[in-house]
Specification:
- The complex is a heterodimer of chains A (507) and B (235).
- Chain A is of the alpha+beta class.
- Chain A folds into four domains: 39 residues; 114 residues, Glutaredoxin (3-Layer(aba) Sandwich), CATH 3.40.30; 250 residues, Class I glutamine amidotransferase (GATase) domain (Rossmann fold), CATH 3.40.50; 26 residues.
- Chain A is 34% helix and 21% strand.
- Chain A has 13 helices and 26 strands.
- In chain A, the strands form seven sheets. In chain A, strands 10-9-11-12-25-24-21-18 form an eight-stranded mixed β-sheet. A five-stranded mixed β-sheet of chain A has the order 4-3-2-5-6, with helices on one face. Chain A has a three-stranded antiparallel β-sheet with strand order 7-8-26.
- The longest helix of chain A has 31 residues.
- Chain B has one domain.
- In chain B, 79% of the residues lie in helices and 1% in strands.
- Chain B has eleven helices and one strand, in the order ααααααααααβα.
- In chain B, helix 2 runs antiparallel to helix 3.
- The radius of gyration of chain B is 19 Å and the shape is globular.
- Classes of the chains: A alpha+beta (507), B mainly alpha (235).
Amino acid sequence: MKNFFKKMKGALTGRGGQSALITALVVLLVVIVNVFLYSLGTALRWYKRYTPTDDLSLMGDTDALFAEAIEDGREITITFCRSEGEMWAHSSGKYVINTARLLQEKYPTLLRLRFVNIITMRDHETEERVDLNKYRTDMNGNETVINSTSVIFSSGDNYRVITDTVSSLGYSDFFGINSSGAVYAYNGEEIISSMMSWVLTDEHRTVYFTKGHGETADVTLTNLISCLGFYVDVIDLSHHSVPEDAAAVVISNPKNDFERAAAGSSIKIKAELERLDEYLLSGGRLLAAFDPYSKRLPKLEAFIAECGIVLSGGTDADGVYCRDIIKDSALSVNTAGTTFVTEPGSGEAAQRLASVVSKYSADKVLVSECSALTLSGGAEALLVSSGSSEATRGDETVSSDGGFATVALADYGEAGGSVCVSSTVLLTTGDVMASSGYANRTFVIALLDELTDAPCTPYGCNIVSTDTTTLQNLTMREAKIYTAVILAVPVLLAVLGAVLIIKRKNA
Amino acid sequence: MLAIYKRELRAYFTGVIGYVFLVIYLAVAGVLFCYSTLFSMSADVTSYYSLMLIFSAIVLPLLTMKSFSEERKMKTEQLLMTSPVSITGMVMGKFLASYTVFAAAQLFTSLYFLFLIPYARLQFATLFGNMLAMLLVGLVFIAVGVFVSSLTENQLSAAIGTIAIILGFIGVGLLSSLLPTSYWLRYVLDTFSVLSRYQSFTNGYFEVSAVFYYLSIAALFIYLTVRVFDRRRYN
């Protein structure tokens, strides 16, 4: 035995062709064992995934929404068009059923879940027949699609159907999806709570978005308005007056000007701005959002200026008209300084909104690419830039006064009408609204509630962001400070090393 | 082995090379960190570590190029080979000294992510996974560097040779996707691609076979280094 080990050692440590052969065999052994283990590991799943699990717990302030309904003994039914097992097995459906179950546990007397086989139209648990055909037309008489991804909220004669007809995801209405089709957040608690509140409300007003001027409507905003208990519709003011059931009119990012009747005209023709004026004088509410880089809209801007809100601008060095863009280096989150967090204004409405926002969020409202608003009369700033911000026109700084208004509110007429103007269209982008690092969603809910007295206000609902990698609230100043600290370390090390080496050489 | 290890570690910081390596490593890692996170407004761990993989492939040879080349050039390797330390102990001592310097630098740069905690929900599991992957990759790169350094007395040749082999390991995975050859050949190439094995960690998987791969390749190159000296001793 001793001789055997001696020979083995000699072979492994000896010279010449024999040890070269052993070396080659060792290399081959490593190759074979690695290929074998790789194959085995893949087949037997010798790996562990370390991705974080999403926190889907309920966080919304929903007790107040349902207190009265619970007292009155009302009941809401959420009908899923597949079995509960299928919901849990579905990649996106499992989020929805998880939230629905949590809400059902929280409100056991109010909420009932039902799972229906869409082919046989029978309840999976009780085998009772369920008539889903009545839900194929919504409460406004419009056709609704019912398929296996449908979720039907019903209470008494009120019902609302959510069906995913656009995405292969299924249940996409419960998620935030950006323009590239990527999911950025799960918003189920807010959607389900809002729909529950929706079917408990007997009357629903409508928020009208104007059309005919190149308007673009942010789908995150329209979905949020729907969650607040309103129908969302479009209106062509050149042909129709604003209906009486209008909760508000929204002008979202217009590219072309509105029309006004010619002054002194003997023929009474109602143009768009006259219809808008009529609506506001009767106590209506207008929300207008402008892209500061779009062309000037003199008639619409003059209309808004009548209530004391002006989009600042002028001709630049090249004689071209452009808006005054706010740059805030102190609170900016981009290098250009045009994306920054804001402070609340000092007026009553601004402070009211700020107190609601601070109740549900410790963060600030983020805006991007804003023009400065000049206010006069009773107009009030709701959101302002910091005291060290400046307004720039082209490459020139026109004002360094700071505290520029980015969102403002003014009264209109004597009947309680009001106009709210946002000098940016980027207050309500999906990714910012889904972010837990900014208070945009809470602010927009509070603002819409302030304007329209919304029937449902889903404050504080858990929005599970799938984008966990974006840095929130980091300003450029902080980033530069951290960079300086990080890069100081090698510099200090170089100095220390040089000192020690020189000292050693001299010693 | 401990004596060799301590001596080598001390040598890094009595000479210039240790400081030069650390300064370059920390400076470039700092720049890459700031570029991939702070100025990109992202707490994505994987993009930083992917860049660090390529950077480490180029800078680690600086650390290992003088391991044995200098001994050979200064004709002091005879002293080493006739010392009471075994060849394996000698090789391991030098390997561990280089690895200690690299691991210390790597762990220090991982502390940069602490700056991001107030601004994002940092995925610590992903961070630790990537850190572990970098430390394992470092084992392989340093083992290759020590092996190549044992083959030549020219430090520059040692550095270039090490970089070539490391890039070869990284490029193998890319090559497998370009070759229109058999599935099995591509499968074997993928098995030995540092990049594809590294990506399993960055994609959030802790693979036992990947850990074995890194340890076995490092052990193989250390074995080959021992064989080189063994052959030289008896020649």
